[in-house]
Amino acid sequence: MSWEITVGIIALFSFMLSVMTPLLKLNSSITKLNCAIDELRTSIARSDDRITKHGIELDRHEKRISHLEETVKIQSHVSEVNNFTDAGF
After folding, report:
1. Phi/psi of residue 87, nearest 5 degrees
2. Separation in Å, CA 60 to CA 48, 74, 76
3. What average pLDDT does range 22-39 have in this prediction?
4. Which of 3, 33, 41, 72 is 20 to 30 Å from the Cα of 87, by its Cα?
């Protein structure tokens, strides 16, 4: 009966070892994934801030371009009027 108990204990230990090894690897993988997700969130937040700043800059540039286009239109119109009056009309 003693050898049966020994075999049973060895079988139980082997079973626990075969179950615990994948669980430990899984736990390690989950921890690494959590760290990667945290880094990704930080990176996304940083990218969102940069995108927002670039959007503001683009809006400012659009306003400047619009203002310059209006200035060019006015100068072009004034130049046409001057050419028209210089022609003797």
Report:
1. -75, -10
2. 18, 21, 24
3. 96
4. 72
